[in-house]
Amino acid sequence: MFLSKKVTMQQIADLAGVSKYAVSKALSGQSGVSQETRDRIVKIATQLGYFIQPRATASARRPVQSTTRKANTVVILLPNIRMQNRASSYWGRIVDGMIEALKENDLNMMLVTEHAPENFLAVLNPSGLLGVIGVGLVDNAILLEIRKLSIPFVLVDHEDDTVPSDCVFVNNFDASTRLTNHLIGLGHTKLQFIGDISYAESFFERWLAFRTTLERNHIPLVQNEAFLQEQGSSREEHQAKITKEVEQMRRDGQLPTAFVCANDSIAISTIRALESLGIDVPGEVSVTGFDDIDDVFEVTPALTTVHVDKEALGKRAVEMLLRRVEMPGAKQEKLLMSGDVIFRDSVAPMKAGVVS
User: Which ranges carry the HTH lacI-type domain (predicted)?
Assistant: First the structure.
């Protein structure tokens, strides 16, 4: 997008029907503005190109670094929300990759798990930071503050339209497409997706690939909407909700022959839910996951899934950050890393004589 004129807060205020002061508070993540008003302001600012216009005053706002001591610390921001934490066999492996790459470049690391913007800013010393790498869901208000400080940053498995940045993902769409096509090739036509599609961009892309693949194969999408909503914060809650829905579908004669789960954790809960109802996996119903976390070996049968090279994601994020530091004016990049479908025992062909 080419912007011939600078977009001002007053322009945004006029279109949003609010004061310039309210726009300032909304765009800086401060309190005092309702969520509805904040969303409207951010949407208008995005449409006008406010967040992608050149920031001529950025260098003036950033503290001048000493010429004798170069900043050498990178903040790894892993907000402790949902299931995002250092102990996670998914997120933790990504952080492991970052730590290794930072050591190779003789850089220091500071892990921050705070997700409240005011508390996050309190621990920062911008003059000593080389950059920030956000892992997983990062609050929009924190990203706005990082941008305001003009600190280079990269996001992993997350992006925000209002705060453009370099980001790295696994290629969710392609991998989910291959997984769904595999099931269709085995004769499955009654498929269900399980995963809260508002949970993460990755979940939504996997869902989009699932339904697109069905359409391309001329298979009607008959999706249980409850499976696309929040399933709980633990595997026990996942299992309880999935069990309830599957039980009802079986009573209605609508039991699918395959479940495509948004990640391995949901897939593990799905297998356990099916087994609790006496439904054989994969004899009656096939199940797939995504991510290939260590926990997949907790269940029998072994889970068919998509292997994500989590350490490589972390390393590439560090490479992208260093590129951004060296070339601050370079165009932003969105890197998609391939995922490999791992065929295990939780998937089987449709039995002869069974109508899918």
Answer: 7-61
Secondary structure element (H or E) that encloses residue 170, with its range: strand 166-170
Rg (CA), the chain: 23
Q: Nearest to residue 137, comparing CAs of 190, 196, 202? A: 202
58: left (phi over 0), alpha (psi -120 to 50) or beta: alpha
CATH of domain 172-308: 3.40.50.2300
| Alpha helix (H) residue ranges in 217-344 | 235-251, 264-276, 310-326
> Where in the chain are the domains?
9-52, 70-169+310-338, 172-308
Residue 342, helix vs strand vs coil:
strand
Residue among 279, 258, 216 nearest 350 (CA): 258
How far is Cα of residue 80 from the mean position of the Cα atoms in its chain? 14
Enter the CATH code of domain 70-169+310-338.
Answer: 3.40.50.2300
What does the alpha-carbon distance between residue 347 and residue 181 come to, in Å, rounded to a whole number?
A: 13
- Quickly list DSSP for 118-149: HHHHHT--GGGEEEEEEES---HHHHHHHHHT
Per-residue pLDDT tens over the stretch 219-245: 999 999 999 998 787 889 999 999 999
Q: Report CA 220 to chain centroid distance, whole Å.
A: 28
Is 172-308 the same fold as 70-169+310-338? yes
What phi and psi, each to the nearest 5 degrees, are found at residue 278? 75, 20
DSSP one-letter string for 317-340: HHHHHHHHHH-TTSPP-EEEE--E
Tokens of 65: 């670094």
How is residue 74 written in tokens? 């990178």
